[in-house]
Automatic annotation (TrEMBL):
Source organism, top-level taxon: Bacteria
One Pfam match: HATPase_c_4
InterPro entries: RecG_C_sf (IPR038475), Schlafen_AlbA_2_dom (IPR007421), Schlafen_AlbA_2_dom_sf (IPR038461)
Domain named Schlafen AlbA-2: residues: 17-149
Taxonomic lineage from the root: Bacteria, Bacillati, Bacillota, Clostridia, Peptostreptococcales
Record protein name field: AAA family ATPase
Gene3D superfamilies: 3.30.565.60, Schlafen, AAA domain (3.30.950.30)
Organism: Hornefia porci
Amino acid sequence: MAIPINIEELLRQQVIESARIEYKADWNPEPVLHSITAFANDFDNLGGGYIVIGVEEQNGYPRFPVKGLDKNILDAIQKDLLNKCNFIEPRYIPVIEPAQIDGRDIFVLWIPGGGDRPYKCPVKIYTEKGAKKSEKAYYIRKGSNTIRANTLEERELTGLARNIPFDDRINPHAQIADMRSSLLSEYLHAVDSELYEGSLSRTVEDVARDMRLIGGPPEARKPINVGLMFFNERPDNFFPYSRIEVVDKPDPTGIGMRERIFTGPLDRQLRDALSYIKNYVIAEYVTKVPDQAEAIRVYNWPYRAVEEALSNAVYHRSYQIHEPITVTVTPERMEILSLPGPDRSITDSDLEKRVLVSSRYRNRRIGDFLKELKMVEGRNTGIPLIVNEMKNNGSALPVFKTDEDRSYFRVILPVHPVFLEKNKDDAKKLKVGKRSRRRNREELKKLVLKALKRKGNLSMNELATELGYKSLNDTLRAVVKEMIEVGEVTYLYPDKPNSRNQKICLMK
């Protein structure tokens, strides 16, 4: 059984934080069992973790080339691992995938947070016949270490048993068929998972089971909430108002106000909203400095700060509260509002100092999917990135607000001061997204080629969205038709030009 992420990227910690990966040079049942139990307990709601057997560790990173395991004992290790997992109470079996790295054999264990926590396992594993039975204990992760839980932590762990994160709960009102096979395959292709090829011919239930997106007894399997959030075309049918609304208010009276609503799978609505903001909201101010080759460029809001703030809102909002994420743009600021606010481990003082370190995450599976798609940063790194991007742009620092009840979380990004100036000469230098002038055909052709190189095959509607248009227009149609005629791009299925699923792709 394959795991739904790329193993090379996992080893190089490109999508998963180091605290969620443990390396073992050889098969040693006792510490491996302790770590499986700790990841399954998922004390901080991070989504469990991974154990890689056959890879040596140095300062928290794998050593390359990998050490590997002896081919002659691979079957014996796998059998012994499955037998030892029977010692975990309640029983827990991780996903085990054999893999080859640098031509050498390794095992990768995927241990998602378990639905029956708390789990405990033997402190010592005795192999001799007639040996005494070991006491069993609860294990948890602290940073990148597996430790035995103390009395206070055991009590807290028991309390977590009644609090499965909402995104990881079974949805009794949905069916497995509500998840779309095409969306599952697109995701697996995007993350370069070995599950991708099989997903093209297997049933939705089989693929979803391998991705841990279904639960319940065999006779009544149901999808997990996160499966509907990412792999259903309209998750707002199950979680009302799970969408992003972008409101541009150039005037406090509301004159000229524009509103866009982005729905669909969480990753798609996030991409679409960010694409719209990048093309229609982000503005650049260019100042030419005498005797200097490089011009000074600043932005009303640095895109990476906006990207991280909005991604964090999608990650950390509650999908049990039926209110959308709203992005409000005025001449003075951009505000991103999501509900509810941060947990009480983050104090008012932390908010003022812009130091937001969460002890436990609200959505463990949403975070995993967004990280694997490279749409959010690692744990507790998003706020520092926003602060640094604002500083580097010469903007005022962001402001983070909530109320005493922690009922909302508002991120305020002040506009760069130069954009508040009324000087007409300065206004001429403004280049507001792509709104300052219409794109000519040559520019549009270049943008089409860039979009296809970046995103792969796209339908005409997807291409229009990627280029920041509200809808497909005649100009874009004409440009693409001309590019097809001269051989710059082609239809994915040239013999079926009018197919509903037709996409545009680059010429090979």
